[in-house]
Amino acid sequence: MAITHLKTATKTPETETDTARKVVTDMLAAIEAGGERAVRDYSLSLDKWSGDIVMSPEAIAARIAEVPASVKEDIAFAAAQVRRFAEAQRASVQDFSLEITPGLTLGQRLVPVNTAGCYVPTGRYAHIASAYMSIATAKAAGVKTVVACSAPYRGEGIHPEVLYAMTVAGADVIMCLGGVQAIAAMTYGLFTGRKADIIVGPGNKFVAEAKRMLFGKVGIDVFAGPSEVCVIADDTCDPMIVATDLVGQAEHGHESPAWLITNSRSVADEVARLMPLLIDKLPPTARDAAAAAWRDYGEIVLCDSRDEMVQVSDTYACEHLEVHCADLAWWHQNLTNYGSLFLGEETNVAFGDKASGPNHILPTKFAARYSAGLSVHKFLKPLTWQQMTREACTVIAPLSARISRLEGMEAHARTSDVRLAKFSPGRSFDLGRPVES
After folding, report:
1. Position 125 pLDDT exceeds 90
2. Which of 16, 228, 251, 319 is catalytic?
3. Sequential DSSP letters for 345-389
4. Does the annotation mark 319 as catalytic?
């Protein structure tokens, strides 16, 4: 058995992290000290925007008036798909109560966060789909207030189609603000007076680093990095489709990994031959990004068996994982680490990114080993509660007292003592040996 890297990445997702960390540290410090004034300064210097940050209903209506009706229909359809899937996720979890022993009732109550911040990037591309992926999911979870942010597009207001997607998805407040300054503004409640409880949405390395550094002051969806794609393919695959799908995600950016795992040398060689040809046919912006991504981060891994292919794939824990192999049910059963799984050549990442329904905001940089992508669950707090009768208290309290005293926690134990003295006066209980030191 052998695993052979026919093409190895020369860079890793951490290569550019130090640069981003320094920039973000300085920006966050300036914003924490300067508040809204500092945010406005960054918006002017970085995005050439001096207009209103919080968009009025009139400004929104004027901006989206130019969106063609056919485009609105497409966006509305895709948003509805995401909303329906998110509503099904919400229905899959529920409040419950359980009388675990006579008189002792325990329960769970699913409570949505009060305010969610949804970031929608518009840099190299206008990420229309990210608007409804985050906002519609938050609303399906029952979040009361959704604050959405997107940068001015090419020095103007929010991209019209992105703005329309925000409105269709149900954003309550929309801010024309991008980058680190948007993440900080939502965290501190600048311009709105509503501090976000959680911030979600993709972004560049600076946005990702800002979320990472502010985590704790605010919740976040995932520790995210550049978009990733991995294709597992055997000799039943169509190499042209495999290569096209790899290129399709490599266009995200210069630092977006694209990986092929296969047990067929002929598939590996053909995909390697096709990649530069397909990249060369892209328009300039996409060609520049995909070429750098494939050159610096692309990998081809040749394995002897499908068990080895699973092993490699689970080690990479890729954000988007496509399987172009026979016996798809076997792969579905055995693969464990991925952000989202796409089974068969009929299904691909772009479908999931845009319109099929499951969320496209997913873990990267190996985080799929322990974390899933964005879902209604990220906006819900499964809060526990308990209530007991006095009879149940006389069962639990002595046990609690004894364990507390074994741990050396006398004050804890006495919270049992005082209740037993009140609820069962004169009755003898084994409360453990009192702590004396």
Report:
1. no
2. 319
3. TT--HHHHHHTSSS------TTGGGT-----GGGGEEEEEEEEE-
4. yes
DSSP state of 245: H
Q: In sequence order, what E strands does 102-218 have?
A: 104-112, 115-120, 145-150, 173-176, 198-200
Question: Computed over its alpha carbons, how large is the radius of gyration of the chain?
Answer: 26
Instruction: List alpha helices for 215-371, DSSP H.
Output: 239-250, 265-280, 284-297, 306-316, 328-334, 349-354
Please list, residue by residue across 239-263, b when 16 or more beta carbons sit within 10 angstroms of its beta carbon and e when fewer do: bebbbbbbbbbbbbbbbbbbbbbbb
* This prediction's pTM: 0.92
| Cβ contact 113:149 at 8 Å | no
Cα–Cα distance for residue pair 360/337, rounded to 1 Å = 16
412 noted as active-site residue: no
From 200, 229, 43, 51, select the one nearest 135 (Cα to Cα): 200
Q: Alpha-carbon distance 105 to 385, whole Å?
A: 8
Residue with tokens 């406005």: 40
**Helix H or strand E encompassing 97:** strand 96-101
**Token pair 């229309």 in the structure block, residue:** 128
Percent of the chain having pLDDT more than 70?
99
pLDDT range class, residue 74, cuts 50, 70, 90: very high
Q: Is residue 123 scored above 90 in pLDDT?
A: no
DSSP states of 58-81 = HHHHHHHTTS-HHHHHHHHHHHHH
- For the chain, the average pLDDT equals 96
The yes-or-no verdict on residue 231 having pLDDT over 90 is yes
- Which of the residues 320, 322, 345, 360 is marked catalytic? 320
Q: How far apart are CA 308 and CA 294, in angstroms?
A: 23
Mean pLDDT, range 403-410, rounded to an integer: 97
* Closest of 82, 121, 75 to residue 253, by C-alpha: 121
Q: How open is the CA angle 130-32-196, to the nearest 5 degrees?
A: 40
